[in-house]
Amino acid sequence: MYHSDTKQILQKRFDKLSKHYEALRDYKSLINNLLLEKDIYEQFIFNTLKAEEKAILDAYLKRFSSIQDFLGAKIFPLLLDVAGINSSKMSEVLYYIEKEEIIDSLENWIELREIRNELEHDYPEELKEALIDLKFCIDSFQKIESYYFNSLNFAKKYIK
What we know:
Elements: H1 3-37, H2 43-47, H3 51-82, H4 90-99, H5 106-121, H6 127-139, H7 141-156
């Protein structure tokens, strides 16, 4: 792939990612407002949420997952490519992404991924655990946001 092609592809992917980020930020704001009114992480209260309130939480988690997937699969490898860093395996990609301080630590990245995956497979009888995971993902907004902004800032060095 030609270097300019890679830069164009990366730019298009960032354009798409920015829409996911903006939606996530908006959902986070709605969740913050909801949290001012009630403790959504309490099982009884969660069960009394209106359908539209639960839909906000679902939409947040969907965007959160999309951003993490998109960063990992579509952005990180191209960032390294435009920077001239060769990496073929995902473990190498994540190693260099951590080394370049795009993510704060591999452990945090993996933990976000595992919690997120657990939420996708949780069932209602495990509501208590699901609510703990939900809180973790909502509390991790700034972390995923920093990964997005760090990726953007890293790319700016190479995309002119």
